[in-house]
Amino acid sequence: MSESSGPAHRPSAVAGPWSVPVLFRERRPRVVVKADLLPAVSVLGTLSLLSFPLAFAWSRLAPPERVRIVAADGTQGALELESWHRFDDLAVFGFLLLGLGIVVGVVVWLLRERRGPVVFLAAVLGVALAGALAMLLGVGWANSHYAVSSPPALGAVIELAPRLESWWVLLTGPLGVSIAYSLLATWNGRDDLGRRLG
């Protein structure tokens, strides 16, 4: 009997580099929490400041609704198609917040040494907070921008300030962050998301 046919030379089912025991012995990176808490708070605070430019941009970009004064007591009558601007105001805010969320998701991903769920959640909460503050500030700034200084005359056409009538639009910002960050994490494909710079 030749040496190659003996049982000592048969390939082992557990000796290879891709065997099950070897795979189970590999150590996977753990989620870093304590070291990422302070950067997460910084991200949250910085993103809340973005509510000011977001609110200002919306208060100037959102279209006002034009109405006609139909009675001497100031009763307003709707003009044809002008009521559609109520949806336009919501859509403009939603697209601004979605764009902000996508940009924030990419920028936070570039913080390579802080990649992970802690900073990601801080980015999601920060964009949601910025959106809520921008919603309140933007409506106030729009009201002051389109304020009527004197009582309008009968038959005059005036512009009503843009308004936001649904809080559901605030979901677009966190959605943008989640989409951008998830796509980049999927494309990266590393267990530690590339935190190690080596």
Automatic annotation (TrEMBL):
Stretches that traverse the bilayer: 37-58, 90-111, 118-142, 167-187
Pfam families cross-referenced by the UniProt entry: DUF2567
Keywords: Membrane, Transmembrane, Transmembrane helix
Source organism, top-level taxon: Bacteria
Protein known as: DUF2567 domain-containing protein
Organism name: Amycolatopsis vancoresmycina DSM 44592
Lineage of producing organism: Bacteria, Bacillati, Actinomycetota, Actinomycetes, Pseudonocardiales
